[in-house]
Amino acid sequence: QVQLVESGGGLVQAGGSLRLSCALSGNRFSINAMGWYRQAPGKQRELVARITNLGRINYADSVKGRFTISRDNAKNTVYLQMDSLKPEDTAVYYCAGEVAVSVYWGQGTQVTVSS
Q: For residue 26, what pLDDT is reported?
């Protein structure tokens, strides 16, 4: 079992920045990759950024150059630095941990970007 707890969401003006954190606990050594996803009202959940155990990173085209995913293994935490935020980035952001064929999800944190 893996437990994920997100924090760092909030309200920010367009052009501003936020940093999301995802704290891992439980059987974290079984995790193959970590990702950040988001879901806006009326839309499907989508991948924002993902980092594997080997450090391979990929981003959604819509956030490339603006968002940065990173991890601190000593703190068992994964981060999503979000810069140059746009109103269309408004969504609930979820942290996800991939274990074999399973995915564990955090509870989500709201990010609202005002214009």
A: 86
Residue 3 pLDDT exceeds 90: yes
DSSP string covering 60-98: -TTTTTTEEEEEEGGGTEEEEEE-S--GGG-EEEEEEEE
Residue 99 has pLDDT above 80, yes or no: yes
Strand order in the sheet with 67-72: 2-7, 18-26, 77-82, 67-72
Query: Could you tell me the sign of the dihedral formed by the alpha carbons of 62, 111, 94, 20, in that order?
Result: positive
**Type and span of the H or E element at 36:** strand 33-39
Confirm if 65 and 87 have CB atoms less than 8 A apart.
no
**Backbone phi and psi for residue 11, each to the nearest 5 degrees, phi listed first:** -105, 130
Cα–Cα distance list, 82 to 18, 26, 42, 48, 90 (Å):
5, 27, 22, 11, 12
